[in-house]
Amino acid sequence: MSAQTSAPMPGEWPVKRIAEIDEDAVRLLVHTFYERIRNDDMLGPVFEQALDGRWNTHLEKMVAFWSSIVLGAKRYRGNVTQAHQPFGHLSGEHFSRWLALFFDTLDKHFEPQAAFAFAEPAIRIAESLQLNLFGWEYTLPPAQRALLDSVKQARLAPRE
Fold this sequence. Notes:
single chain; mainly alpha; 7 helices; disordered N terminus
């Protein structure tokens, strides 16, 4: 898959899970994940309303964001908290669904160590966004708390 490709084609998806993260791996994750978002009954309408006519721009921004997070690319220029301020009408269940789809996409396409590079920041960002949107007294839904706890356990587990 080339860097100019706007979305991975199903035939380009890896037969085996990815162990090493590079720009193409980030692009695959972003495009595959957001295709799932677009087709999701809960999240699809939310994203469609917010991104109508701007999907390609958003996908490229997300590739830059995740490349900055996992590869240190420093290409993302934006304020994550500010970008999500218009979404205070969402609920913790929306965030839980986003995380479930994200983690499932990671599991399908990445080896555990590579997936972890995305998973830990994703859960931390989701937690931070919810606290900013819903207030500091907000309690994460149980499914998210369990995900966060599992990520903490994975980080603390001895490496082989």
